[in-house]
UniProtKB/TrEMBL annotation:
Catalytic activity: 6-phospho-D-glucono-1,5-lactone + H2O = 6-phospho-D-gluconate + H(+)
EC main group: hydrolase
EC number: 3.1.1.31
Superkingdom in the source lineage: Bacteria
UniProt source species: Algoriphagus taiwanensis
Domain Glucosamine/galactosamine-6-phosphate isomerase: start-end pairs: 8-215
Protein's name in the database: 6-phosphogluconolactonase
Entry keyword Lyase: no
NCBIfam families: pgl
Length: 224
């Protein structure tokens, strides 16, 4: 894994936005589009706000969600709600192709299958150009939660968590989808994550983050 260390979370967000912008330009030039998925979190939202200032052909960029809480539309618990707040008033709101996870569907299992199919239709092979990931202080990433059966899913690209986590059931990308991404970008900031970061870098299979492939990954952090 490529590791880039910065002095602050703000610098991590800035450098990540620059890196994504460069990758997007390269992919659009080579194949005409760029597809990536974003996780929630304070530093990622700062990154997205900075990315929104870049001069990119946004209509050729497809943005997916890595995971989402099962909550009503517009609820503050939803990553999508936070994402829209970040982008409100920017050019991205009208030009970027945003594909929300349908957690308000009456049949959530079907919604998982439909989202996976949609990713396949857009990408042609379910291989996203970039997946952004964060990590919790317990070693979870996306909504792959320690001890949850969702971590054992091998035959679905999108799946539901078996149990609520922090009060909400989740819908998430699974290892089969994440690990085939062309690029994975880790943004990990905050002192409370230092121990788990070491375990992740050592590929500790006891934490969900430790089972993400590292050969196509870059880590941006303020912790090392």
């Amino acid at each position: 894994m490529q590791i880039n260390v910065y002095s602050s979370a703000e610098e991590v967000a800035h450098e990540a936005a620059q890196w994504i912008s460069s990758l997007a330009k390269s992919k659009i030039e080579s194949k005409g589009s760029f597809s990536f998925a974003i996780s929630g979190g304070r530093t990622p939202w700062e990154m997205l706000a900075k990315l929104a200032q870049e001069n990119l052909p946004w209509e050729k960029i497809n943005l997916f969600q890595v995971d989402e809480r099962i909550a009503p539309e517009g609820h503050e618990d939803r990553n999508l709600t936070q994402l829209f707040q970040v982008l409100q008033g920017t050019r991205l709101m009208t030009r970027l192709n945003i594909f929300p996870i349908h957690v308000i569907s009456e049949n959530l299992q079907e919604a998982c299958e439909e989202y996976a199919q949609h990713i396949e239709q857009i990408t042609g092979n379910s291989k996203l150009d970039l997946i952004h990931l964060g990590m919790g202080a317990d070693g979870h990433t996306a909504s792959l939660i320690p001890g949850d059966k969702v971590c054992d899913v091998e035959n679905q690209m999108i799946a539901l968590t078996d149990q609520p986590y922090q009060g909400r059931q989740r819908m998430t990308m699974t290892y089969p989808l994440i690990n085939q991404a062309e690029n994975i970008l880790w943004l990990i900031t905050g002192e409370e994550k230092k121990e788990m970061l070491v375990r992740m870098l050592n590929k500790d299979p006891e934490i969900p983050a430790g089972k993400i492939k590292q050969d196509q990954a870059i880590l941006m952090t303020d912790l090392l």
